[in-house]
């Protein structure tokens, strides 16, 4: 049995798409367990860039079955659009997709509420895709699930109940409450399109694990955006850590064999919230440009900063990481000095822990490293890295007490130093 979880160890956008794509070369199943169309994964294969938001990254591997678990929230129109686009590229996504019939659906009023809220002074920087309001409905026990698209009358009754609950909020924010018919008609055709691939995905994945299939669980967002453990309230609305794979898919924790966390050689963040190692000025602009740090869903520039090792240690602990895949080392080439946050000065003294609730009143403590000018994109072994880059990589590994399994030196699938592979026998 091989159940492997891949999670983001920072604020998301760590390069999960590329790493999952690499690992899925050995996977039988790729299972997304949380989040919605707010999580874009960018894949670069043979120089061609492909962005997926809901479809698991394993869709590019023709032998992998891709699954959306019931912890995800699905915008049916977005998902159908992705499937159509993949088919236009010569792939066959519908034959290799299974979707949880109990996954909740993002509808037009969720997107409306999300956008109205982000237009107020209480905005937190969401992608305005309706993800948060959809999870709100789920928790309030008035959500719409994909299985509800099997009966239009029943669906309309559930939408009516939800609209009655949302109407005061929409009106208070200056919006117009849509009618039940408008909401249902908007999503109906897309929902019907997905019915053939709906199933009990929890049973499907459990059977695969018991049959000793290799199952890769793909996370969305990152540890520091987790609704319980992130920089609240500037977080996502789901469980982004490894434990979320069990609840989001419907399997027990004993089915998991390994957890891999993804981290950039620096940090980025999208939206509001504290970011103590954030950079501004020429260095930030250079990292953002070279690293193409623009949201794959929204296109907005990402905030950039130095790598935060107390935060990474926090992610190692929360996720029970067995290894780290370090990405975008190549982006740092050409910088005269590279920095890493190693601790925080707090009102009560210096700490190596991540002060998740007090970041606004803490000051990062840095270690400085000599930069490197060489292009590292052709390296396929650690020994091929320049000494300065290798010293930096080894320092990160030592400081967080977690071994590296991958060092990514470019966006392409082949631009990767693979030190260990969780789906290959040792």
What does this 3D model show about the protein?
The chain is α/β, with parallel strands linked by helices. The chain has two domains: 2-89 and 200-418, Adenylosuccinate Synthetase, subunit A, domain 1 (Adenylosuccinate Synthetase, Chain A, domain 1, 3-Layer(aba) Sandwich); 104-196, Adenylosuccinate Synthetase, subunit A, domain 2, CATH 1.10.300.10. A hairpin with a 2-residue loop joins strand 15 and strand 16 (349-351). The chain contains eleven helices and 19 strands. It is globular, with a radius of gyration of 21 Å. It has helices spanning 16-23, 76-88, 108-118, 131-139, 152-172, 180-194, 201-210, 243-249, 282-290, 309-319, 387-400, and strands at 2-8, 29-32, 41-45, 48-52, 65-68, 73-74, 97-100, 104-105, 198-199, 214-218, 258-264, 266-269, 303-308, 323-327, 337-346, 349-351, 363-370, 404-408, 416-418. The strands form four sheets. It has a ten-stranded mixed beta sheet with strand order 9-7-5-2-10-1-11-14-18-19, with helices on both faces. Strands 12, 13, 15, 16 and 17 form a five-stranded mixed beta sheet that branches. The chain has a two-stranded antiparallel sheet with strand order 3-4. Helices cover 30% and strands 21% of the residues. Helix 2 (76-88) packs parallel to helix 6, helix 3 packs across helix 4 and helix 3 (108-118) runs parallel beside helix 5 (152-172).
